[in-house]
Amino acid sequence: MVITGIAEWHKGKYLISLNDEPAFALYGKEIGEYGLKEGAELSDEEYRRILDDVLIKRTKSRTLHILDKNDKTEKELRDKLKEGMYPEEAIDAAVEAAKRGRFLDDKRYACQYVYEKSRTKSRRMIEAELKRKGISEDLISSAFSDMDEEEGMEDREEALILKLIKKRLPDPGALDNASKEKLYRYLTGKGFEFEKCRSVLDRYLEGYG
C-alpha cells in the first residue's frame, strides 16, 4: 500500500489515504511515531501494527462512548464509526466486542423500539423505521410477536386509532362523506390498515347511535 495523502482533518487528527482512498485518521504525534510520509510504502505488517496498537483500541473506546449516550442498532453504530474514519477492520473488532459485552443487541433494540413506539405509531410505520435502522425482517417480526404475546399489538393499534379518531372527530354527528374520506386518508397516511380503521370508526359511531 502507498500512502498517497496525509491531510489535516478534524480535532487535531490527520486523514491518511492509502492508494488514493481515505483509510484512517491519526494524531500528528502518532504519524511521527510510525514514520508515515506521503509517497512511502506501508506494508501489511506496519498497517496491522497501527491497527492493533492504536486504531482498534480507539474504535472500541469510541464505541462505548456512543452506546453509553444512546442505544444503537449495529447499522447505526457502524455508520457512526465510519463517520469518524475508523477502518473496517477496527469497526468489526469493536462491534464484536460490543456484542459480546451485551452493549449492542439488535433484537433487544427492536423489542424496546416496538414497545415504546407502538403507543404512538402504526405497525407499518414502526416496521419501516426499523428497516431503515438496519434491523432484519426476522428480528422485526420476532419483536412484534413478543409484543403480541405480552400485551397485544392489535389491541394497542386499535386503541391508538380510536384515540386519533376522537381527536379528529370529537363530534361524531358532524361526520359526512367528505370528512370521513379525509379521516381515512389521515389514518392510512399514518400506516394503519384501511379495514382496521373502518372497523374502529364503525364501533365508535355505533356508540353514538
Write structural notes for this entry.
With 209 residues, this protein is mostly helical. The protein folds into four domains: 42 residues, no CATH class; 45 residues; 45 residues; 52 residues. The chain contains ten helices and three strands. A three-stranded antiparallel beta sheet has the order 1-2-3. The longest helix has 26 residues. It starts with a strand and ends with a helix.
Percent of sequence in beta strands:
5-15%
Structural class: mainly alpha
Choose one word for the global shape: elongated
Rg, Å, rounded: 26 Å
Helix/strand order, N-terminal first: EEEHHHHHHHHHH
> Which strand order spans the largest sheet, edge to edge or round the barrel?
1-2-3
Mean pLDDT: 92
Number of helices: 10
Number of domains: 4
Helix content: 55-70%
Ends distance: 78 Å
Report low-confidence residues grouped into runs of 5 or more.
Answer: none
The number of strands is 3
Sheet with the most strands, sense and barrel status: 3 strands, antiparallel
Key phrases:
209 residues, mainly alpha, three-stranded antiparallel beta sheet, 10 helices, elongated
